[in-house]
Amino acid sequence: MFLDNLRLAPRLLGAFGMVLLLGVLLGGFSLVQLNQVNDKSTELADNWLPSVEAVGRIDALMLEVRLGQVLHANTAGDDQVDYDRRVQKGVTDLDAAFATYAKLVSSPEEQKLLDEVSSQWKRYLALTAPAKKLVAEGLIAQATTVLNGEARTVFRATSDKLDELIKINHDGGQAASDEGTRLYARAKVAVIGAVVLMVALGLGVAWAISRRITTQITQAQRAAEAVARGELDHPIHTGTRDEIGLLLQALKEMQDRLRGIVHTVRANAEGVATGAQEIAQGNADLSSRTEEQASALEETAASMEELNSTVNQNAANARQGDALAREASELASRGNSAVQGVVSTMIFLALAQHTSGLCLPQTLDAEAYLHAQADIITRGLAARPLS
């Protein structure tokens, strides 16, 4: 849908704009209804009520003129003059009242009645005009006869027509009042209905938008929770192009990428497991060989200990032999010194003998003999065992 592809800001602005438009329409509708009620109240105030007042004034002035004429005929002196003055003023005021009422006429029927009343009133004035002259002449009885004759009949007919005018204006005013009441009732119902409609539409739009937004946010929340639990196959529906739809699209792309990463990691983990098994096998072989080497090293260490013992024994023997050799060398040295002393003694004896007997060959033989004996002694010492 078109609305689903709108961003949140235009969507919310449209919703608020719709509510504001409904408010403006409601205000306009209320103004129209109020204007109609005002028209009726204005009609009452500017037409029917002034018409009723004007007709009432005409009626009152006609009665005042009629009463003044009768009193004018039945009084004397200053009172008679005063009543005559009142009658003349009443006639003048009636002319002004008729002119005022003529401006307020609102229907042909009313205009017809007004013309009839005006015509009969003029006829009444014409019929009562001789009474003033008769009063002035002192003919009171004749003046009274004029006033109570045809003039009275015409006056009553004029009053009846005037009552019809009063009834027309009263009925018109009552009709305007009733129409105003009906307009007010209709306006109240219409305004209440419009308010209810505006509230319902506003709530409907708010509910639709909030439901759409909360549904998408809930879907995004569930998708994120599923990814957090490691459920990378959770379905994510992305059917809109608003901000939340773009968020769901990003979550879907993240889910797909995580699924690929997990697949790659899983494959690498399987390779690592295979390598680890091979390494474990190699470690087992190495451990076996290490144990064999350790056993050989133990044997070598034992042999080294034996060799060390032998070397130590040989060193002790060597030290003992060295001591014996030193002792033999010292003995040989002393023997050599002794032999040299013997030889020297023998040589000295031989020289002495030679000096005395000059037997040189014997002397030489004796010296050779001594040397031989010394060598035998030296070899004998050297051949002695060390221990």
Structural features, described:
The chain is mainly alpha-helical. 90% of the residues lie in helices and 0% in strands. Helix 1 runs parallel beside helix 3 and helix 3 packs antiparallel against helix 5 (150-228). The radius of gyration is 80 Å and the shape is rod-shaped. The model has no long low-confidence stretch (mean pLDDT 76). It folds into two domains: 3-221; 325-382. It starts with 7 loop residues before the first helix and ends in a 5-residue tail after the last helix.
Break the fold down into its secondary structure elements and pairings.
Blueprint: H1 8-73, H2 77-102, H3 108-136, H4 140-148, H5 150-228, H6 243-357, H7 360-382
- Structural class category: mainly alpha
Assess the beta-strand content as a share of residues. under 5%
Q: What's the structural domain tally?
A: 2
Largest sheet: none
Q: Secondary-structure element sequence? A: HHHHHHH
DSSP summary: helix tally: 7
Instruction: Flag low-confidence runs.
Output: none
Quote the average pLDDT.
76
Shape: rod-shaped
Descriptive tags:
mainly alpha; 387 residues
